C-alpha cells in the first residue's frame, strides 16, 4: 500500500510538472502577442499623423481667402463711380418712381421742410457760382490795374525826359527854355475866421477850406486865379509835383462817399464813385489829378479836403507875403518842401 501511495505521489508530481510545462508553453506563445500590441501602439501615431488635418486646413483657408478676395472686386467696381451727382440722380429716380407708383405714402418729412431744403440748395449753388465769377472778375481787374500803373510810369518818365531834352536843345542854341505854365495848384488855408471879410470867407467856403491847414487841389485857370487873389492873405498855394500829389493821396487821402469821410483803403471805393469816368484805382486818381484830365472836377470833388499838420518848425510869419519873408501867397514850386513838412 505504501508502494502504491508512493507511485501515486510520483504520478501526481509528473502531472503537475506536465501542467507547469503546458502553462510555460502558452506563455512563450503569448510573447509575440505582446509584440503585436507594441506594434499596434507604434502604428497608432502613424494613424494620428494621417488623421491630423494640419496640412489640409491651410489649403482650405487659402482657397477661402482667394474666394473672399475675388468676391469684393465686382462690388468695388459698382461703388467706385458713386459721387454726389449720382446720389442726387438716384434720389430723383426714386422720387420719380414713387410719384409714378399708384400707392401714395405719407412722407416722413413735411413738404415745407423739403421745399426749404430745395431753395437753400439752389441758393448755395447760386452763391458759389457768383463767388467764382466775382473772383474771376477781381483777377482780371488786378491785371488791368497793374498794366495801367505800368503805362502811367512810362508816361511820367517820357515827360521828364522830354523836358530835359528841350532844355538841352535851348542851351545848345543859346536860348532860354520856358516851361509850359502849371495846370495844377494846391491851396492851403493858414489863418482862422477871426476878422475875416465876408467876401474872402465865401471864397474859402467855395474852395471847401473851412479849417486851418486844410488843403485842396485846384485847376489853374482865370476864374480860380481871381478867387485865389480875393482870399490870398488867408492862404498859401503853389504848384505840386507828381511826388507831392502821390504822397498826399496815399498818406492823407480820404474819399467823400454818401456825405461821409472814408479812408481810401480799397480800389473798390474809388471805382464805386468814379468808375463811370474810367477811374478804378489809386493810380488812375493820381494820374487824373496830376495831368488835370477831362474828369478832374469829379476826381477833385471826390477827395475830401486834406487835413494837414502844422509844418515842422512852425510858420515864419502868417501876416506877411512869402516874397517878403512871410507865409501867405504864391510859392510856386516851393510848395513841395512845405508839403513834405506837413504830411
Which labels suit this protein?
5-stranded mixed β-sheet; alpha+beta; single chain; Ribosomal Protein L30, Chain: A; 343 residues; 12 helices; 62% helix; elongated; two-stranded antiparallel ribbon
Instruction: Note the gap between the termini.
Output: 171 Å
- Taking all Cα atoms into account, the compactness measure Rg is 56 Å
Coarse morphology: elongated
Instruction: Report the CATH topology name of the domain at 185-342.
Output: Ribosomal Protein L30, Chain: A
CATH superfamily of the domain at 185-342, called what?
Answer: Ribosomal protein L30/L7
The strand count comes to 7
**Biggest pleated sheet:** 5 strands, mixed
Order of helices and strands: HHHHHEHEHEHEEHHHEEH
Strand order of the largest sheet: 6-2-1-3-7
Secondary-structure arrangement, i.e. CATH architecture of the domain at 185-342:
2-Layer Sandwich
Strand content: 5-15%
Helix content: 55-70%
Name of the CATH class of the domain at 185-342: Alpha Beta
Helical/strand content category: alpha+beta
The parts where pLDDT drops under 50 for at least 5 residues are 26-45, 57-66
> Helix tally?
12
Mean pLDDT, as a whole number? 82
What does it look like?
Helix 8 (242-252) crosses helix 10. The termini are far apart. Among the domains are: 113-180; 185-342, Ribosomal protein L30/L7 (Ribosomal Protein L30, Chain: A, 2-Layer Sandwich). It is built from 12 helices and 7 strands. Mean pLDDT is 82; it is low at 26-45 and 57-66. The chain is α+β, with helices and mostly antiparallel strands. A hairpin with a 2-residue loop joins strand 4 and strand 5. 62% of the residues lie in helices and 9% in strands.
Amino acid at each position: 500500500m505504501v508502494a502504491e501511495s508512493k507511485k501515486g505521489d510520483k504520478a501526481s508530481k509528473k502531472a503537475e510538472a506536465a501542467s507547469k510545462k503546458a502553462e510555460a508553453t502558452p506563455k512563450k506563445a503569448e510573447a509575440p502577442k505582446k509584440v503585436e500590441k507594441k506594434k499596434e501602439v507604434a502604428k497608432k501615431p502613424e494613424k494620428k499623423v494621417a488623421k491630423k488635418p494640419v496640412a489640409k486646413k491651410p489649403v482650405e483657408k487659402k482657397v477661402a481667402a482667394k474666394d473672399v478676395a475675388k468676391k469684393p472686386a465686382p462690388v468695388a467696381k459698382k461703388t467706385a463711380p458713386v459721387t454726389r451727382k449720382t446720389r442726387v440722380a438716384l434720389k430723383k429716380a426714386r422720387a420719380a418712381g414713387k410719384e409714378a407708383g399708384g400707392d401714395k405714402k405719407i412722407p416722413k418729412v413735411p413738404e415745407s421742410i423739403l421745399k426749404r431744403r430745395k431753395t437753400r440748395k439752389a441758393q448755395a449753388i447760386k452763391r458759389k457760382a457768383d463767388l467764382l465769377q466775382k473772383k474771376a472778375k477781381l483777377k482780371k481787374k488786378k491785371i488791368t490795374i497793374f498794366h495801367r500803373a505800368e503805362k502811367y510810369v512810362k508816361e511820367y518818365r517820357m515827360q521828364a525826359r522830354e523836358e530835359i531834352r528841350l532844355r538841352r536843345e535851348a542851351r545848345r542854341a543859346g536860348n532860354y527854355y520856358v516851361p509850359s505854365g502849371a495846370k495844377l495848384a494846391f491851396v492851403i488855408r493858414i489863418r482862422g475866421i477871426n476878422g475875416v471879410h465876408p467876401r474872402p470867407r465865401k471864397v474859402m467856403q467855395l474852395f471847401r477850406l473851412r479849417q486851418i491847414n486844410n488843403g485842396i487841389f485846384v485847376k489853374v485857370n482865370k476864374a480860380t486865379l481871381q478867387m485865389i487873389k480875393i482870399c490870398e492873405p488867408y492862404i498859401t498855394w503853389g504848384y505840386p509835383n507828381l511826388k507831392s500829389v502821390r504822397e498826399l493821396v496815399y498818406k492823407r487821402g480820404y474819399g467823400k462817399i454818401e456825405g461821409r469821410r472814408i479812408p481810401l483803403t480799397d480800389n473798390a471805393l474809388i471805382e464805386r464813385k468814379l468808375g463811370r469816368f474810367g477811374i478804378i484805382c489809386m493810380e488812375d486818381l493820381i494820374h487824373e489829378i496830376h495831368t488835370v484830365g477831362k474828369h478832374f472836377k469829379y476826381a477833385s470833388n471826390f477827395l475830401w479836403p486834406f487835413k494837414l499838420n502844422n509844418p515842422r518848425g512852425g510858420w515864419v510869419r502868417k501876416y506877411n507875403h512869402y516874397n517878403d519873408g512871410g507865409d501867405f501867397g504864391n510859392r510856386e514850386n516851393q510848395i513841395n518842401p512845405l508839403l513834405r513838412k506837413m504830411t
